[in-house]
Amino acid sequence: MRFIDALRLKSKLLFLFILITAGLSFIGIVGTINITSMKQKLDSLYFGSFVTVMELDEILDAYHINLQTNIYMAKNNIINSQQTADVIDQAIKQIDKNWNSYKNQYKSDNELPYVNYATSEIEKSKVYLQKIKQICVDGCDVDKISIETLISEITHIDSIINKLRTYEIDNAQYQRKELLDTYDETKIKLGMILFFVIGGVLVISYIVFKSIQKDQSDLEVATRKLKEVNKKLENASYTDSLTNLHNRRYFNMVFDREVKRAKRAKAHITFMMLDVDFFKQYNDTYGHIEGDKALKSVANVLKSILKRPSDFVFRLGGEEFGVLITDTNAEDSAVLAQKICTEVEANQIPHAKSRSSSYLTISIGVVSCIADEALNEEEIIKQADKKLYEAKESGRNRYVMSDEIIG
Q1: Phi, psi angles (nearest 5°) of residue 239
Q2: Are 343 and 288 in contact (CB under 8 A)?
Q3: Which terminus of the chain, N or C, has fewer Cβ atoms within 10 Å?
Q4: For residue 286, how far is the Cα from the chain centroid?
Q5: Rounded Cα–Cα distance for residues 342 and 360 (Å)
Q6: What is the arithmetic mean of pLDDT over 218-222?
Q7: What is the rounded CA–CA span in Å between residue 380 and residue 225?
Q8: What's residue 283's pLDDT?
């Protein structure tokens, strides 16, 4: 009987599949005829304008962010000459790549003269940038580079590119207007066809599905259970088994996401790197079981202080922890860091071999700043690690904080 029931079920599903396929094929044929012209307009709108706008934006970014910013940094001795030369070389390649992609796309006869003019001006600017690069490669004094001349060159290119950008956006709006003029009529035609075809499919599908409702319900139950198991497995893969904090894998996933979110909102972001003081000596004195208890105690302190949904606490490995918080300014972050230090010591876990206290303590390196587009994710971690080292060198059982990122 089970074999016969299975055959019946397969037959019903096959019938439903054929019916839906026939209906969708009919819709596809009629729809293709009616929306061919609309598709061409969409192609023109998106690929003829929006993509080109992004390419032009990337060229502007190369001039403003990669070149102007890094040359400023070079003149202020933040980066060396070789690094500056590498940045200029990368920027020139990016400009070449995006400009070649842009100009090789279809251009009308009205566009070509200005595009050719823009090409010549970009080539001139590249010659100028090559000269700056050669100064850096030769190890000459970067103070010879005239910021005024650089700004003048970039401003000139900026005006040229922005004219092209404005044209592309205006062209997109024109194409969109044409699209909307024909869209309503096509929508009504397709709507009527879809109404009758889908209506018929739904009626027949309802009859067919009524006969296999029990099997579908069983499948939904099984699927729900599987999702629950998968969710538990996923949580386990992102959780440290000892402390029940987020682990290093989750940190790697969430850190970049939260920094980018803070950049978009131009919000405060704080990262703390914490390390248990003299933890090796603690393990040597009291044993690894007590060491695990001590790590759990530190984790409990962190969880009790950092309770907001936007507060992330991680065990990065061994006795090292990490804290990532947003929308908290430097002053409040300092208060939190001090509270963490105080609460850990207040647990009064004896540590006879510690040179900073008779109890277990921690040291914290803190970085707190307003996120902007120039903020480097890796530099946040490096700066926090540096401040953690300073906290250890200055006696431990304390925090050292920086409210800016220094490249």
Answers
A1: -120, 135
A2: no
A3: N
A4: 43
A5: 11
A6: 65
A7: 41
A8: 95
